[in-house]
Structures are given as C-alpha cells and as structure tokens.
C-alpha cells in the first residue's frame, strides 16, 4: 500500500477542513438547528469543552493560551471572554476566519 507523504496528507486534510467541513462545522458549532446525530455531536463537544474549562480559573486575566487546532474557535472565544490573551491557529484559514468572526 502506498504511504502518503506528509505534504500530500496535509493537502488532503487542508482540503477537507478548509472546504468540505467548514460549512458543517460552522453549523455544528453555532446555535443553528441540526439533525439528531449532529445534535449528539454538538452536545458531546459542548460537554468536553465545559470539562476542560471547568479545570481553568474563571478569571484568566494575564494568562496566555495557545489554542492549536482551534477549529471554529469555541474554546478560544470562551478563554478570551475570561480574560486570557489567546492565539488560535488551525490548518484551515476558513475555520480561523470563522473563529475570528465569533470573537465578541
């Protein structure tokens, strides 16, 4: 079986996340209505993020956080809301743009 090179695999992932998945992730991580399966995924992601955030102080003023693989920015936005200085990066410029739009 042919093993993909790093660049080829990265290109596949970029195409998927930047084009194919961006719209689906945008809806999934918004308040837009979604189907039953996506609602389950949304709830699971919300629970996972809540658990992670529960381990951090409510006041993050002065903290610096790197959100690597930020996707649509749900964690980055909440950390910034708590006062952290956040750098959010992702392979997908489309998702980073969406995260930037969601900053309050």
Could you describe the 3D structure shown?
This protein is mostly helical and about 100 residues long. The chain is about 55% helix and about 10% strand. The protein contains five helices and two strands. It has a two-stranded parallel sheet. The longest helix has 19 residues, at about 35-55. The radius of gyration is 15 Å and the shape is globular.
Q: Termini distance?
A: 48 Å
Enumerate the spans where pLDDT stays under 50 for 5 or more consecutive residues. Answer: none
Q: How many beta-strand elements?
A: 2
Rg, rounded, reads 15 Å
Mean pLDDT: 88
Number of helices: 5
**Secondary-structure element pattern, one letter each:** HHHEHEH
Largest sheet features: 2 strands, parallel
Strand arrangement in the largest pleated sheet:
1-2
- Share in helix: 55-70%
Broad structural category = mainly alpha
Shape, principal axes of CA atoms: globular
What is the multimeric organization of the chains shown?
single chain
How large a portion of the residues is in β-strands, by DSSP E? 5-15%
